[in-house]
Specification:
Elements (H helix, E strand, L loop, with lengths): L2 H4 L2 H26 L5 E2 L13 E4 L4 E7 L9 E7 L4 E10 L10 E6 L2 E6 L10 E10 L2 E10 L7
Length: about 160
Amino acid sequence: MSLRSFLPSYSAELLIVAAMLAVGWLGWWLSPLLLPASDRQLQPLAGCDLHRGACVAETDAGRVELAIQPRPVPVARPFRIEVRTSLPDVRSVEVDFAGETMNMGYNRPRLAAAGPGLWAGEGTIPVCVTGPMLWRATALIDSGGRRLAMPVLFHSDPEVRR
């Protein structure tokens, strides 16, 4: 027995169109989770290297600093993430880790307020089976109703297991 035997001939087509619309709407609704949107992108200052120290971006509204401990950034082991900022009215901070050359899945820890202008939490990046890879760590800051993003590129090294 097929679906067509239970429904008039046009109903099956309507169900298919309705299912396609539902999937499209669900993708649109969930897209902010997978593709972080921002009102403004901040560029880190020249010489930024998360393996050696914090990366800093400065704007007319304030300063943002992203740091990971221990250094160099470990692979497949938890590490501490800190975002220090002088931006006004910061409501939330997340750091999105995305593989630049390979999709490594959703990895966006939410940081907790840890003091005035300090947000902290824990993160992990997985080992890539193809070897060292390029990562993008994007600090996402909700400040004064605006979403600011500061992307920082860094290479992983699977041999570093501190």
